[in-house]
Amino acid sequence: MSDSIFDTIKKMLGLDPDYDPFDVELQAYINSALIALKQIGVGTGLIITGHDETFEELTDNEALVPLIKHYIYLKVKTVWDVNSLNSNTLSALKEQIVEDEWRIREENEKVIYNETNV
Q1: Tally of CB atoms within 10 A around 91
Q2: In the chain, at which residue ranges do the beta strands (DSSP E only) sit?
């Protein structure tokens, strides 16, 4: 079964997928992370509009899906929980985002390189 991007990120943030008072805000944060992924060369330019869009729509590379989930979660968490995070925690999250971006690029380039040299 395909995982809904929106529902997965909400669950990772500790929110019930059916709890909707902050859906518009969360959707904007998720879409911002999806745009960032597209800018680093991963993704299809997908923009979520609700609960139907899945991680499988972003990439054919299954190895990237866990990294993408973690990356989107961290990007959303840093803006969603900004008032509850101390500066050390926020700094650590931002460092992890940079590492995730590197790992995503590396995995994506490995796939691109392998496809062009087959």
Answers
A1: 11
A2: none
Task: Provide the angle, in degrees to the nearest 10, between the axes of the packed helices 5-12 and 23-39.
Answer: 110
Please report which helix (H) or strand (E) contains residue 84, including its range. none
Amino acid at position 66, single letter: P
Q: From CA 11, how far away is CA 57, in angstroms rounded?
A: 19
Residue 111 tokens, joined: 């796939």
Which of 10-24, 61-75, 103-117 comes out lowest in average pLDDT?
A: 103-117
pTM: 0.89
Q: What are phi and psi of 86, to 5 degrees?
A: -80, 170
pLDDT in tens, 97-118: 999 999 999 998 876 666 555 4
Distance separating alpha carbons of residues 66 and 57, to the nearest angstrom: 14
